[in-house]
Input
Amino acid sequence: MRPLLSRIGAAALFLLCASVSQAASLRVAPTSLELIAPDSAAVLNLHNDARQPINVQLRVFRWSQADGVEKLEPTSDVVASPPSTQLGPNADYVVRIVRPSKAPIHSEESYRVLVDELPDPSRRKAGTVTLVLRYSVPVFFRNPDAKAPDVSFSLSRTGRSLVLTARNNGESRLRLSNVNLTQGGKKLGSRNGLVGYVLGGATMQWPIGSSRSLSGSSVALKAQSDFGPFNAPVAIKGQ
Output
């Protein structure tokens, strides 16, 4: 995941030095999928905003987390049908996301569907860059009896950077966004928008600000989740 973000950042910098020959034209909805067993299939809606056809590729990866690191692995447990297609100008298309296995879901299975708009070599021009898009769509298959997320938070310092760690002892994921950390009424750090997910039984961490030191007093977290706004205490580690 991080190398992918690095490549996207490098491409964005390159665009500052070249003209764009074609604006990104692919739209994907919804932005995430959740299926409750026994449901095993859902759809993604693709739309082409361009005046010319575009080629699209879809790949499914099993998504896991360990020690604060995201991992994507190729899988055949969940498939996209079809895995590639061409969308005509201003056209809509429906892709099915299917879990063909009949094996029971014990808690929650997590996947990501990468949807890529592929560049068309025939439309390349010298001195221009074709801007294309990649969507990464979270997909969850959940047992209705899976335990709700049970997340504890801690804060540590690496150099001057503050790192927020979330440990999920539940069986289903928590989506974290709009995080604010305060200590003694003073703001320690914050991140607007989506911060990330911590999957069931996993641990994740994110940079959340900077500080020269952390005192022994408690830290309070205020954030947004799938279930709405919430507050939580944050343990301090390695002052």
Q: What stands out?
A: The two ends are 29 Å apart (CA to CA).
